[in-house]
Amino acid sequence: MNMRKTNRFWQTLALFTAIVSFGLFTQQNPKVFAKTLTVGTSNTFEPYEIEDKNGGYEDGNNGFEMDLFKEIMQNTGMKYDIKIMSFNAQIQSVQSGQLDLMINGMSVTEERKEKFDFTDSFYDAGAALAVNKKSKINSLKDLKGKNIGVKVGTTGAEYAQSINKKYGFKIKYFNESNPMWQDVENGGIDGSIDEEVVLRYGIRNGLDLKIVTKPADTMPIAIAVKKGHNQEFLKKFNAELAKMKESGRLQEIIDQYLGDNANIKTDTASERTIFGLIKKNGPLLGNAILETLKISIIGILTATIFGVLLGVLGIQRGKILPGIASTIIYLFRGLPMMVLAFFIYIGLPDVIGQKIPLGVAAIITLTLNEGSYIGAFVKGGFQSVDIGQWEASRSLGLSYQRTLWKVIAPQGIKFMIPSFLNQFIITVKDTSILSAIGLMELTQTGSVIIAKNMEGFNVWAIIAVIYLIIITSLTWLSKLVERKIR
């Protein structure tokens, strides 16, 4: 590398460092009220939140907590943007500042008050034990030696932890309620401890379970924000909530879902078949396919740029640049993608004081993870070219860089093509991991559909077939491209 290009490299690195440093030291004022609030919620906590046919909350009848929130936001003129993710991820995202608040039937406990501020309560709820309808378990005393499911981070999980030694059962943790309930139905676990009102609603909506205990550890339910943040929202929300309590409007909203005459819409038998599910959820599945492909294409393009850069740095003369490339490849190839996604989307904003949009976090995750693998085989592709090619080119007077790009790269690319195409296929499958941070790709969409009809087997069969069709098409296309280039 000549002196001019060396200087250019270090100038670029210095500029990048300056930009990152600026982001680290220019943090937002956490107490300034945002015009558009970023709101976290779950897709599997009915009747608090019930998604519409498009996987959002735009239609009516979105659950009593969501309906209450939407009505208050409309009355006060406050704007919001909803993000869907697991309960545990919501808690971490509020703490990091990635979310302004979370709406997920959150119980107000003394421990949570240390980390969160809450709105005034609008409902009281407690945990209960639910088992398969055919189960012989009738009380907590029958749980000795049994496996009981709980949802991570919930008061139901805390309640189970407080009594499991007394009653001698083992705890299995889940991120969402629906997989846990299905595990009970299928006999994988013996029961689940979850919020009683949620279990009761699910049973009325076709969940094949029965509740065998009364609600325990009843606690107030409220909306949470980070401690000391979004105080203007709390003030406006509480003022409007007080009006709704006084007028009886709050009770009307709750009775719509939990009253004796509550109108619960359930899917018909034909709508629960595979073809019925496809017909009813066609637009949602179509959007999920497009989102999966969009993220995959953008991700593989940025990962390729990043990976090629790492590969080129890895074969430079000297030890510094190859050492940097090797370290980056080792670091991001060694981290599980889910850990990396949580770090970027939930952990990093807490450090830089800036929110990272979900799509941007997803692309960065794919770029770093997939790019590290690409960097490894790009480096290997260049190194696979016979050493004699280097020696012959240099003996003819070509510089190191001209030899690399004019002689070595064209030959090395042929060795890399199969790996590039294979990595694209891997990237498509890896997007499913990003559902953990709420990306509405195919896997997350499957969870949304299941939350509305409890048809786990049929829905996952549909999702699996869609993935197989996409991967088969890409495999066929990659072989065609490989034959054309070679």
TrEMBL record:
Pfam families: BPD_transp_1 (PF00528), SBP_bac_3 (PF00497)
Residues annotated as signal peptide: 1-26
Compartment(s) where it occurs, according to its Swiss-Prot or TrEMBL record: Cell membrane
Keyword rRNA-binding part of the UniProt annotation: no
Molecular functions (GO terms): ligand-gated monoatomic ion channel activity
Keywords: Cell membrane, Membrane, Signal, Transmembrane, Transmembrane helix, Transport
Residues of the ABC transmembrane type-1 domain: 289-478
A GO cellular component entry from the record: ATP-binding cassette (ABC) transporter complex
Domain of life: Bacteria
Transmembrane segments: 295-315, 327-348, 457-477
Topology in membrane: Multi-pass membrane protein
Presence of the UniProt keyword Cell membrane in the record: yes
GO biological process, one term: amino acid transport
SUPFAM superfamilies with a match to the protein in the record: MetI-like, Periplasmic binding protein-like II
Family, similarity comment: Belongs to the binding-protein-dependent transport system permease family.
Protein name according to UniProt: Glutamine ABC transporter substrate-binding protein
